[in-house]
Each structure stands twice: as C-alpha cells, then as structure tokens.
Write the structure tokens for this entry.
Amino acid sequence: MSILDVIRARRSVRAYRNNPLPQDVFLRVMEAARLAPSGKNLQPWKFILVRDPELKLQLAEASRGQLFIAEAPVIVVACGYPERSYQRQGNYMQSWPIDVTIAIDHLMLQAQEEGLGTCWIGAFDETTVKQILGIPAGVKVLALTPLGYPDESPPDRGRKDLSSIVSYDRYE
C-alpha cells in the first residue's frame, strides 16, 4: 500500500476490540513516531502508553467522557517538552506542538498500515490527565489516541477540493 493509500484509508475510529497488540506491530507503530522529524532534531516528546484498565477509564472520563477510548488495549498520551524544543519557530513560537503533532501523525499512519485504529483526542482536561499519570509541571499534553483493532468501519467524511486550499505564488 502506498503512503497516499494509507492516508486516504485512515479514519477516526470510535469503537475498538480489546484484542492485544502483537509486540512486533506495536513496536513498528512506536518506531514510526520515534523517526518523526522535529525542529533542530530536538525530538521534544514523550509518549505514555497506558494499558491499565482503571487508568484508561480515568483518562476517558478526563476526555469529556469519551468512554470509547478506554475500549482500546492502549491509550497513547502524547506529551511535549516546551523548554526542550526549538524556541524560534516562525520567529514567534516554540516548535513542540508541531513536533509532537508530526510524531503522533506518523504513529497514526503506521497504525493504519498495521490494521489498527486511532482517533485524535483533543478534548481533554490537561490538568486532570497530568494528575492521573503523574506528568510533571513543565511537560504539556498535546493529544491522546486510543490504539487498537477497530470494531467499526467509519465512512469517508470527505475533504475540501485541492483548489480551495492551494494558491500559487501569492496568497489568494
């Protein structure tokens, strides 16, 4: 399957089978995240892989009650280190949100290639997630995703036409 085929096939999965993930599959998914590019190659990320059923349920509740995420065998919590990231992205911001986003996107695309489902979870209470997992004050939580075998086949929700998102030579 080409990378474009993987991108086209990926969907946000909101129902999971509780089948365990084979170690080789799991390691390939995490390797994809590890290999992601980052500003100045600083790799300002850490992924907390939550397998404990009680912790998964607490995280689901801290994610505005999205209980489906606790169904997956693993919840990946993507964290960033603001102080360990490139500090002048665009000459106005730190790179960590972009860097962590690229890494988790790599993870999600490899998961799709492996037949696994994911769902970008941005609706969560960071303070509560940090308390549940003992994440230190200087670390930021960017996103969570369940990781497991899908128990549904979500439909294609469509995307904008290329002509509506691209301009040439100047902003139009």
User: Anything to note?
Assistant: The mean pLDDT is 97. The CA atoms of residues 52 and 166 lie 44 Å apart. The radius of gyration is 17 Å.
